[in-house]
């Protein structure tokens, strides 16, 4: 019998000043006092919150360890697995923007343990998704793992993170407009499985961010909650679809291709946002509306703002279809020619 298993987070807590209640949440979730918890955080600003979480666990009787990670790479994953061998945790908690959450997700998946996501910024949809990105020699790879059993998102912590991170998260969310169009195309042309419910969830997140772009652009605290909820909704969409299809299409392929051809320090969601303007143009949709939402948010809409050259954008466009050949998108099997790529980038104002 064919079946499609859906794993979803059991508990989502979004509120103010809740980062120190992680210990109590773990008790509520049924983890017994005296069990061992491995907390992973970044080693710079998020380390502070990693320590807050560790203390909140110790206070209610858990045996908690904090380990810091500087990147999400295969070698660090091995190191985390070694630490886990020594400490024998019953639960792993990732506290951070992305890397610590990615590693907590992957390590717990490999060890068949539960994990909890405590995001300290809202820069991409990995905070609630079943996928994790991992760096190896070939660049960043996205791996299927499992979603967190709980997400504890402290609005004040995320609000105090650099605004650029939140805006990048919005770029990642707005990319769902093109990801869903690519998915529908793959369904029509390739008979690929398409789930209306998960596609609608991803689109709902993108619509919410587009509608609230002005408020988010002004960096109002209320808007932080909208972005967190939208990112969580994207994570649910991926869990329900059983793949990243509703959340990752040609705009993500462009973003990954750009990371390969340039040394840009632009954030994931910033590259996805720009990719999404160009892919929406190819889809014949409202690319201008998408671009103005990004502008209102204060997100990059041009090569210059991403810190890349026109040549790099063109090269990334021509390479994008090779990144994940099995993922059919508007770029087709053969991709886009150099000349068409240049015309596309000029027509959408990404390059001059
Ligand atoms: Zn993304």
TrEMBL record:
Zn(2+) binds at residues 172, 252, 268. One of its GO terms (cellular component) is cytoplasm. Its main location: cytoplasm. It catalyses: sn-glycerol 1-phosphate + NAD(+) = dihydroxyacetone phosphate + NADH + H(+); sn-glycerol 1-phosphate + NADP(+) = dihydroxyacetone phosphate + NADPH + H(+). Its EC number is 1.1.1.261. It is an enzyme of class 1 (oxidoreductase). Substrate binds at residues 125, 172, 256. GO terms for biological process: glycerophospholipid metabolic process; phospholipid biosynthetic process. Glycerol binds at residues 125, 172, 252, 268. Binds 1 zinc ion per subunit. It is found in: Cytoplasm. Keywords: Cytoplasm, Lipid biosynthesis, Lipid metabolism, Metal-binding, NAD, NADP, Oxidoreductase, Phospholipid biosynthesis, Phospholipid metabolism, Zinc. Pathway: Membrane lipid metabolism; glycerophospholipid metabolism. NAD(+) binds at residues 98-102, 120-123, 129. Its cofactor is Zn(2+). One of its GO terms (molecular function) is metal ion binding. Catalyzes the NAD(P)H-dependent reduction of dihydroxyacetonephosphate (DHAP or glycerone phosphate) to glycerol 1-phosphate (G1P). The G1P thus generated is used as the glycerophosphate backbone of phospholipids in the cellular membranes of Archaea. Belongs to the glycerol-1-phosphate dehydrogenase family. PANTHER family: GLYCEROL DEHYDROGENASE (PTHR43616), GLYCEROL DEHYDROGENASE 1 (PTHR43616:SF5). HAMAP family: G1P_dehydrogenase_A. This is Glycerol-1-phosphate dehydrogenase [NAD(P)+]. It comes from Thermoproteota archaeon. The gene is egsA.
């Amino acid at each position: 019998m064919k079946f499609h298993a859906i794993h979803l987070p059991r508990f989502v807590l979004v509120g103010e000043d809740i980062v120190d209640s992680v210990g109590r949440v773990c008790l509520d979730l049924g983890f017994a006092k005296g069990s061992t918890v491995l907390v992973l955080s970044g080693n710079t600003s998020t380390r502070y919150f990693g320590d807050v979480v560790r203390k909140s666990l110790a206070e209610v009787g858990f045996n908690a360890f904090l380990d810091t990670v500087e990147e999400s790479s295969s070698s660090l994953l091995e190191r985390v697995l070694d630490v886990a061998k020594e400490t024998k945790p019953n639960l792993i908690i990732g506290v951070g923007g992305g890397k610590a959450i990615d590693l907590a997700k992957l390590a717990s998946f490999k060890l068949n343990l539960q994990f909890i996501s405590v995001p300290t910024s809202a820069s991409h949809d990995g905070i609630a998704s079943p996928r994790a990105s991992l760096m190896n020699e070939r660049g960043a790879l996205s791996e299927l793992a499992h979603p967190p059993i709980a997400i504890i998102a402290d609005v004040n912590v995320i609000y105090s993170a650099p605004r650029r991170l939140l805006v990048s998260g919005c770029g990642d969310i707005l990319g769902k407009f093109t990801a869903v169009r690519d998915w529908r195309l793959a369904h029509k042309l390739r008979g690929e499985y398409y789930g209306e419910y998960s596609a609608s969830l991803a689109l709902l997140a993108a619509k919410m961010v587009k509608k609230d772009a002005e408020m988010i652009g002004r960096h109002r605290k209320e808007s932080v909650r909208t972005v967190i909820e939208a990112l969580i909704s994207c994570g649910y969409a991926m869990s329900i679809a059983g793949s990243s299809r509703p959340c990752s299409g040609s705009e993500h392929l462009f973003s990954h291709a750009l990371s390969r051809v340039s040394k840009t320090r632009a954030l994931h969601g910033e590259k996805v946002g720009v990719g999404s303007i160009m892919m929406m143009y190819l889809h014949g949709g409202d690319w201008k509306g998408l671009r103005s939402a990004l502008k209102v948010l204060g997100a990059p809409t041009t090569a210059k703002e991403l810190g890349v050259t026109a040549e790099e954008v063109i090269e990334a466009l021509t390479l994008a279809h090779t990144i994940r050949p099995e993922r059919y998108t508007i770029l087709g099997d053969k991709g886009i020619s150099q000349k068409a790529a240049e015309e596309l980038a000029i027509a959408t104002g990404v390059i001059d």
